[in-house]
């Protein structure tokens, strides 16, 4: 749905995958959009030809970069109406083969990266008495996934953070959500080698989530099938175990 409100949305992890297509869909719908990423090679051409798109070389693990990018968006456009925390890294490996450096990186990007961007936008949102903070979550936060212990733990932390802030700041006018995409054929998820029939294309997922960007529901699902799938595996964990059996080593 086209809007000409010019509302401002910041998207992290915006140079590719879901984030890139979500940002493009939002711009098509009339939003002003700022994309944060450590690589802006895909975003830069969009920003060069459209004064409603801004691209920021921003590492969400670096406090100063996050604050500088958010401050620049506020200076340019007067504020941030919506933040979509989407940046993430993923390592597939058995727990005993993982290094502490791997785990720290996942937590620093997938959890503390969200904390940093929230801390940067929250004062501006609170001053205006309104705002929405979407936090990209995953079904693995609820049911786990063999070989993704670090990623699953970081998404579990995000779920707890969003719920806590939603309760703590319920009278502030700022809404905190958990946003759930389906399994998506992103470059980062390619290591999982899911069957093609089990995943959706990033462009389709980005557009579905863009259509939900004004939602203040506690949980925002890309589509009905994602909502139903989450409910099913949460109530019947054996389904998740069956679906991920190929990642579990056979006993010697």
Automatic annotation (TrEMBL):
Keyword Endoplasmic reticulum in annotation: no
Please list the GO terms describing molecular function.
oxidoreductase activity
Which ranges carry the Ketoreductase domain?
A: 7-182
* Keyword Oxidoreductase listed: yes
Query: What Pfam families would the database entry show?
Result: adh_short
Query: What keywords are annotated for this sequence in UniProt?
Result: Oxidoreductase
UniProt EC number: 1.-.-.-
Listed InterPro entries: KR_dom (IPR057326), NAD(P)-bd_dom_sf (IPR036291), Sc_DH/Rdtase_CS (IPR020904), SDR_fam (IPR002347), SDR_oxidoreductase (IPR051911)
Q: What family name appears in the similarity comment?
A: Belongs to the short-chain dehydrogenases/reductases (SDR) family.
In terms of PANTHER family, this protein maps to: SHORT CHAIN DEHYDROGENASE, SHORT-CHAIN DEHYDROGENASE_REDUCTASE FAMILY PROTEIN
This protein is called: SDR family NAD(P)-dependent oxidoreductase
Q: Which organism is it from?
A: Halosegnis marinus
């Amino acid at each position: 749905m086209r809007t000409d409100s010019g509302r401002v949305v910041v998207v992290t992890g915006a140079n590719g995958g879901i984030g890139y297509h979500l940002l493009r869909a939002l711009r098509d719908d009339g939003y002003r959009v700022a994309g944060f990423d450590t690589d802006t090679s895909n975003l830069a051409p969009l920003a060069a030809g459209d004064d409603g798109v801004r691209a920021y070389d921003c590492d969400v693990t670096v406090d100063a970069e996050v604050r500088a990018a958010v401050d620049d968006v506020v200076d340019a456009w007067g504020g941030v109406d919506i933040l979509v925390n989407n940046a993430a890294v993923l390592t597939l490996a058995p727990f005993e083969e993982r290094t502490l450096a791997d785990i720290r990186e996942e937590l620093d990007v997938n959890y503390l990266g969200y904390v940093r961007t929230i801390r940067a936008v929250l004062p501006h949102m609170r001053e205006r008495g309104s705002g929405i903070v979407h936090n990209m979550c995953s079904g693995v936060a609820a049911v786990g996934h063999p070989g993704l212990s670090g990623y699953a733990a970081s998404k579990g932390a995000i779920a707890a953070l969003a719920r806590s802030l939603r309760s703590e700041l319920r009278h502030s006018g700022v809404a905190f959500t958990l946003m759930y995409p389906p399994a998506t054929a992103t470059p980062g998820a390619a290591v999982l080698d899911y069957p093609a029939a089990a995943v959706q294309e990033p462009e389709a997922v980005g557009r579905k989530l863009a259509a939900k960007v004004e939602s203040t529901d506690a949980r925002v699902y890309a589509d009905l099938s994602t909502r139903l799938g989450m409910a099913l595996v949460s109530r019947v964990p054996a389904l998740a175990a069956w679906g991920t059996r190929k990642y579990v080593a056979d006993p010697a």
